[in-house]
Each structure stands twice: as structure tokens, then as C-alpha cells.
Amino acid sequence: MTSLRPARPAPNPVIAVVALCFGGLSAALTQTMVIPIQSELPELLHTSGSNAGWVITATLLAAAVSMPVAGRLADLYGKQRVLVVNAALLVAGSVVVAMTSSLLPVLAGRALQGFAMGFIPVGISLMREFTPPHITGTAIAAMSATLGVGGAIGLPLAAWIADGHDWHLMFWVSAGLALVVMLATIFLVPHIHDAQPGRFDVVGGLGLAVGLVTFLVGVSKGNDWGWGSGRTWGAIVGGLVVLVAWGAFELRQREPLVDLRTTARPQILLTNIAAVAIGFGMMAQSIVVPQLLELPSATGYGLGQTILEAGLWMAPAGLMMMVFAPVSSNLMRRTGAKHTLMIGGTVLGAGYVVAPALMGAPWQLLIASCVAAAGVGIGYAAMPTLILDAAPAREAASAVGVNALMRSVGTTLAAAVMATMLTSSTTTLGGFLLPSQGAFQACFVVGAVAAFVGVAIAATIPRRRGGDAVDPGQQLAPVASETA
Fold first, then answer.
1. Is 466 helix (H, G, I), strand (E, B) or coil?
2. Which of 18, 50, 305, 377 sits in a 20 to 30 Å window from 339, CA-based?
3. At what angle do helices 325-335 and 362-390 cross, to 10 degrees?
4. What is the model's pLDDT at position 477?
5. What span, in angstroms and rounded, lies between the C-alpha atoms of 324 and 342?
């Protein structure tokens, strides 16, 4: 059983929370910042379209690996230290891309930016250690929302920069933001002595990286390589085989990278499975809605918006996630984290349910996107609370990192499924094949199904000892002591 003691408030906890949220937002912003210039990357980098696609994929893969690894390092060496390293990686990656126009250095820089995504789960786990009880729930909810907010802001910001400036400028902006984050983390975030004794499982880290990257490459490239291709299924099956072998290896380790026995606890396991479904739901609308907005109006259902205009229509949805952070905290206080996750998934699904009837104008899609984003904001905030309630204190950051990884798996699966659906049903305009109206409607239906599946899974999460309703502001912060 984990022993508990009250959280240790920092001298300026609100300032520290703002610094961490700004860091999470800056890291998440890099995930979408190249999307406005995606079609131009082959020419900008003097390479093929297939090779240019790795500029986005490299960041997603690195982010998936970094989340559990950063969490484990944070448990071993201290969360604030790892946050500074993550911010430094974001600075380095941004500068590398800003200074080159060659493919390989750009891929290296984008991978470094992806590794910085470990900032978000580590920041969430640290907040519980220094915030006073009355703001803990809201702080965690706000930090959880930065994943969506950063992505939503990154799209119009990058489109605006790319529209009238050299594309390298967006990475200099990213580097400047990252430098501010690093300095804020050093000087404003409390230096809590929360390091735990132990060693880092290097072999486990390599095994997880190989398995995850291989599997996710197969999933993310399936639409390009073909779903009937041996290359696609070789990567997917090969990655799964490596992950099974990695799991068997981890179970034999005294100090594994990820304690699978802890991960198998019902509250953690079911929350992580629900995270895949909710992550799928979040990414689906992020892919489908911009394409529908940018499709030529001559199709009869496209809305004819420019990339910048589409980004601006999408931005409020990202901000909606942050707006609903205190709402989520209040819901957790009244009904508990489990029911809050169920409410979030239900609202997300409702956004997809109404979307097919709101495809006639940009402002209508804005409404549907904001409803879905509100659900994501509510649900994303509840998941870390469920994980932290069930995980031992010495594994807090690692457990939150695994949960973030599962959300990332959900978003990757959504990207693959949505791309396949949008290319499987097409119409012709001016000699070009474009997704049909039915394809967009089908995507909304699949997004709704994923969200409601997440709700059903969340409903099976066992109640906390003593009841499900918990006041996030009155939770106790775990300390590094356990009794058998």
C-alpha cells in the first residue's frame, strides 16, 4: 500500500503551474507546425514526397518513445531535472531544423522535438507534489489540456508564418519559446528532491523503442505503402512480436522500465485502454475537419478555406480544452475521476454525432469541433488523476508517461484509419481525386463510435477504495514509501 502525506506547496505554485503549462503547450505546438507546409516539403528539402513524409512521422515516433522513458527517468533522477532536459531537447531540435534545408538534419531535429514531449506527463506528475490542495485538480487538468491546445495553436501560427515568411522562421520561433520554457523550468518550477533509488533499464528502453517504432511505422505508413503490402504488415506484426518479447523481459527485471504488474492493475489498465479510444476520438476531428474546410467549394460540400483560414477556424477548439480544465476539476470533485472520464467521452462522441448535420458552413463545423474538444478537455484531465490514484509514488511519472503513450497510440491509429477512409471513397474534380462527402460523414461516425467505446471501457474501471467521488483539491500526494 502506498503511504500518503499532504502535498508540499511551492512558494509560488500558480506561477510554477503556468510555467509548466506553457512548457507543455510549446512542446505540443511542434507536433502540428509543419502541417501547413507539408505539401511543399519535397521541394523545400530537395527530396521525394515519401521521404518528406517522415518529417511528421519522426516527431510522432520520438514522442511515443519519450513519454514512458522520460517518466521513468523522472522517477529515478527527479522530475524537475528531467523537465529541464526535455526543454533543452526542444531548443536543440528547433535550432537544428531552423539552420538547415536538408532532409537528414531536419529529421534529426524533428526527432529531438518529439523527445521533448516527455515534458507533459512528467509535468503532470510533478504538479501533484507542489500545488496546494485547492488547485491541484485544476492544475493537472490544465496541463493535460496543453496537448490539444498546443496542437490547435500551432496550425494557424505556422500557416501565418509560412504564408509570408521563410519557413525556417517557425522553427526559430519554436526555439525562442523553448528557451523561455527551459529558463522558466529552472527558475520558477520547484526543485523538489523526489528522486527514487534504482537504475534505468537500458535494455528495456531499447526494446520498447524498437517495438513501438516498428509497430507505429507500420500503422502510420499503411496508407502510403498499402494495407495489403507485406512491408506494412511485416512492420506491424514485427513490432508486436518485439513488444511481446519486451514484456516478457520486463516481467523478469527487478527494476523494469515499466512495471507491467502495476500497469495491469484494473484501474490503470482500463484507464489506459480508454485512453486509446479517447485519443483516437481527439485526433479524428483534427484530421477530418481541416480537410473538409480546405476542400474546394466546387465539390458542393467543401468549404473552400485557405490553410490559414482553416487553422483559425480550428484554433477555438483547442482553446476550448483549456477553458474546460476547471470544469473538469469541478466534475472530479463532485462525481469522481471515473465518471468525469465517462462524461468527457460522451461529450466528445456528441460532437461527432452532430457533425454530419453541421457540414454546411465553417461556423457550423466550429461548433461541432468545440463540442468534441470540450469532451477531450474533460476526459484528458481525468485520466492522469485515475492513474496517479492507483500507481505507487515511486512510479508516478512512469505511470503517467505510459498513459500518455496510450493516448499517442490512439492518435496514430486515428491518423491511419481516417487517411484510409478518406482515400477509399473519392470523387473527381478537375482530374483530381478528392474525398467524397460520404467519406467525411463515415469518419465522423467512426469518431463517435471510438468515443463511446471509451465511455463503455471507462464504466468498467473499478471504484476507488472508499468511493469514486474525490475532491482533487483534497487529494494527498504520495511519497516514496510502500509497505508490502
1. coil
2. 18
3. 50
4. 40
5. 15
Distance between alpha carbon 200 and the CA centroid of its chain, in Å?
Answer: 24
Identify the H or E element spanning 432: strand 432-435
Give the DSSP H or E segment for 242. Answer: helix 230-251
CATH fold match for the domains 8-191 and 262-474: yes
**Cell numbers representing residue 354 in the block:** 452532430
- Asked if residues 72 and 397 have their Cβ atoms less than 8 Å apart, the reply is yes
CA 210/CA 202 separation, integer angstroms:
12
Identify the segments of the chain with pLDDT beneath 50: 1-7, 466-484
Torsion angle of C-alpha atoms 196, 198, 199, 200, degrees rounded to 10: -50
Write down the pLDDT at residue 481: 35
Cell 512528467 found at: 122
Instruction: Determine contact, residues 444/417, Cβ cutoff 8 Å.
Output: no
- For CA atoms 87, 92, 97, 103, the dihedral sign is negative
The dihedral formed by the CA atoms of 278, 264, 328 and 290, expressed in degrees to the nearest 10: -20
Distance linking the first and last C-alpha atoms of the chain? 7
E strands, 73-198, are: none
Distance of CA 56 to the CA centre of its chain: 14
pLDDT digits (tens, 9 = 90+) for 333-373: 889 899 999 999 999 999 999 999 999 999 999 999 999 98
Q: Is the pTM of this model over 0.85?
A: no
DSSP states along 299-356: GSS-----HHHHHHHHHHHHHHHHHTHHHHHHHHHHH-HHHHHHHHHHHHHHHHHHGG
Q: Please give the pLDDT value at position 476.
A: 39
Q: Look at domain 8-191 and name its CATH class.
A: mainly alpha
Distance CA(355)–CA(440), nearest Å, equals 10
State pLDDT tens for residues 310-337: 888 888 887 888 888 788 888 888 898 9
Torsion of CA 435, 413, 306, 297, to 10 degrees: 20
Q: Which amino acid is at 457?
A: I
**What CATH number belongs to 262-474?**
1.20.1250.20
pLDDT at 9: 53
Sequence ranges of the domains in the chain: 8-191, 202-256, 262-474
Task: Give the whole-angstrom CA distance, residue 351 versus residue 347.
Answer: 6
Cell of 38: 507539408
Predicted pLDDT of residue 464: 61
